[in-house]
Amino acid sequence: MLLYLPYVDPLTILRADLQIKGLDMSGIGWLFIIIILATVIGGLYMLRKTANKMPIGDEQMKRIKARQAELEAQERREKQQD
Asked: Which class for 47: exposed (0-12), middle (13-18), buried (19 or more C-beta within 10 A)?
């Protein structure tokens, strides 16, 4: 024996649950939620899409390494003085 269950829309269940709790959302409320989610997801997608690596040239990398070595040497001198 097959049991046929009627199709129940999940949105209908959610609306009924919200109405039981006294939080009735009208269509405009759902529209705002959809717009906000689309804006956030679209913004994150655009940020990911436009992000690119900034290549560092050899000369600039040498200056960074030299500055880092200089700062480390200065920190060692300060620790020895203390």
From this structure: exposed
